[in-house]
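Slide 14.
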Amino acid sequence: DPVEPGSDVEFNTMTTLSRNLVTLKENRRFDMDTGIGYITTHLRQQNSIPRIKKDGLVYVRKSAVLTEKFHHTNKFDTILCGMNKTRKKINQLVRQARGYYDSIPEVGETVVCLRNNILRQGGKINNGELFIVQAVFPGEKTSTFMLLDEYGEKTISVDVMNETWESEKAPMTQAGTSVQVFGFGYCLSVHKAQGSTFGSVLF
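Slide 15: predicted structure.
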């Protein structure tokens, strides 16, 4: 049911148009007695990141993370952050640490879809979906990429304007032809990563 328009409610509480007040009292997404459970509770109550070592959690200084050397030594399934400027900076550092210097993605790189879109060959791709680059066909303004989804089940072909990799604000069409919007996928905003599951994560 929709939340009542103009209602001034707390984050975990809502009033619906057809039901009484509904309040989320217990987290059902994961075990609260784990490192991640501890961190989420601490973030909500203290608004700071705790410096703990629990269930595989290790605290790392931000100054270390913002160096190429750190990402040369440490490789994560994903890196999560809150701001787009941080995401772009870390993606650049990870690319350099892994030996990728071209302005557009190279074979073997991880990329992320930034907008829901329909593919010209049929099917759709979703905002936040991750892919591995299998082949690159460079063009002067637009390049074509053969991508394999993160599960190794689906191969797609997408056209992406070259300027998109730098600005992520290029149009979705060029000369009447649909083009997709992608970004580098080593570091994701928490918004893009919603619903995804990863093994080794840097937050």
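Speaker note: The helical segments are 35-46, 62-65, 68-73, 84-97, 164-167.
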